Amino acid sequence: MVRILSLVFVLLLSPAVTVSASSGGMGTQNDAGGAVDVLRSPDGRLRAVAVETRTPVVVDGAFDEDVWQHTTPVSGFVQSEPRDGEPATERTEVRLAYDRQNLYIAATLFDSEPGLGVVNEIRKDFRNDQDTFEVILDPFADRRNGFVFATNREGARADQQVANEGREINASWDAVWFVRTRQSEDRWTVEMALPFRSLRFERGLQDVWGINFSRRVRRKNEVDFWSPVPRAYNLARVSLAGDLTGLPAVSPGRNLQVKPYVLARTVRPTGRGTVFDPDARLGLDVKWGVTPALTLDLTANPDFAQVEADELQVNLTQFSQFYPEKRDFFIENSGMFYVGDAARNNRVTTTPTPDEDLLLFHSRRIGLGADGTALPIYGGARLTGRAGAYELGLLSLQVQGTEQSPGNNYTVFRARRNLRPGSDIGAIFMSRQSAESGADFNRVYGVDANVRFAGTTDWNSYVIRTDTPGIDSGEYAWRTSINREGNFFHGKGGLMTVGEGFNDEMGYYRRVGARKWFLDTGIRPRPAAWQRRGVREIHPHVVWNYYTDLDGRMVGKRLHSGVTLFFNNGGYTELSWNPEFNEITAPLRLASGVAPLAPGAYSWDEWQIRVTTDPSRHVSFTFTGIAGGLWSGTQRTVMAGVTWRPTARLRVNTGVTRTSADLGLPGTDFVTAVWTTRANYSFSTNMFLDSLLQYDQDRHRFNANLRFNFIHRPLSDLFVVFNDQEITNDPTITPGRSAVVKFTRMMAF
Fold first, then answer.
1. DSSP secondary structure letters along 506-534
2. Is there a contact between 724 and 739 (Cβ–Cβ < 8 Å)?
3. Which of 592, 672, 664 has the alpha carbon at shortest distance from 630?
4. Per the domain annotation, does 555 fall within a domain?
5. pTM for the full model?
6. Residues 524-554: tens digit of each pLDDT
7. Nearest to 236 by CA among 202, 201, 218, 210
8. Does residue 642 belong to any structural domain of this protein?
């Protein structure tokens, strides 16, 4: 493995391959088919020029200011979906301007059938199954990181932070920015103001920014880009963006934000009497731009009471469940700390999924107990950004001690050196240190490399070492993979090994003393005859994971072989065959009241069908049916849901995951189910009411989470949260309840 990593430096000395956004001369076709002149940078990228405005711009979507009348628009959008590379079917024009505080974007989105426009939500961070306009900015022009700002016809706001071209997409990142839209007979318009202080860049050192625009025409399931992006990718492919020029030596400002909070709550734990325990807390978050490229975040006495509850899951495996991180402090800039595989950042899988067999840094391990109980945190700091040619990330938090566990300090340091387009090498160090004993610690350190060949093929590898008192051998892990993502063919294959003494207390992983061989490949043909019948794409594919111990003996496998049909309207259906094998070394109980499975080896086959209808419709459905084996017996599993969206303000989704199984042994037949209902109502683009109701049939547990959120000014919130938990089969157990009111106010200096 060390020899393999050493080849990185040889490869990086070879001539770099630059993937231009497009090629050709000065002329192209605009959306309506006429010839227009386009600007290009010396490397062939499309170029947009921002012009200065000396009069204030009122963000109202009306384009009344003089600057918009004297600004040449960029146009010529091309399709990524459904007909890659062809001119967009609807014309889009974008103008750019700036003053000392803001970058302004004005977009005119012409529509030949305005009455058929699709708007499904007006809430913050809305879903993209509707008409949208998006922009990605890469202020450092490093062609790998960026900030995304998106809106729809009603002026809803969504923003994201993209790291390493989609290896990590942080949908919870928030910034101060402003947008308004207007609709008329044959178009809808967008006016944005993006404050420079909300972005990260180096004043005077970067006169070219990366930029791209995307438009979605949902009724046609069409996606268009200004700087062309093949359908294998999405807006996160920053290396394919164009250039933004014309900006002077603008400054991000001092970028000092102070955000205190005040919180009051009362709590009665489940089954612990009838008395409520009131509590009041104060806390503070500070964000400071130490340099234009480095940001320091400080938090004192943080509280995450407003975070949405986890969804209950049915677990029929021998492994603990994976739950994603939802706490804002840990999510922001989390891509800096990611070590792992290249993302499949196409529009089928827009959000990269972590390799749950080994996620090296899973911040959920900090400040949360094994049962999900929150542990108090004194405070912490995070430093992220750039220093010269390096990207740096430092995270340190102090968790208070409890009766069950001592206090601990958690520290993560990450450094990455960008060497050529799409390629980098890096190092990571993680430490948990007990506050009570210097001999109680866990440390993780390693190196990684990511190399891109010819724009569509990535090689990713890492080598990790752990250090824990009392463990003397096998404290290692390594992984290597090759990934190619193209319009027609995609393929990924590799090998991962985890030593028997590997111990990463800030990671998530399932096996130690094991090797994982993996393959994920398929083709995406688009026969014209099928498209005329409503099928846009056929996707035969395999996702095979094969596990052995370190001596080569099989201990597990899942061989998913399937074919997916993607429809023109955005729905899809999939049929698959999934042979599975698992070896367990301890008794395994799959449901309460069921006799446990004995240790041993188990093999079975599953057949699965999945159906999802057009998600942009007022009513849509999802269905997954699984039939076949399960461990030593058989199963019938149904995962079904229906979404009702009568207006852009209301969305209701209800679903069930139900398994009926008979493991073929006395006392091993059971039925388990989780019922979930989620409702969201938007009073406006700044006020929302969300509810999550769940019932676990096996544990007879009902959970309710109600949350009201009012954004009373940018990045300032009022939250009112109510939680309820009841054990329905035992009236003697007192229901657990809590009510929380939290007020935050962001002050910028």
1. TSEES-SSEEEEEEEEEE----HHHHHTT
2. no
3. 664
4. no
5. 0.87
6. 999 999 999 999 999 999 999 999 999 999 9
7. 210
8. no
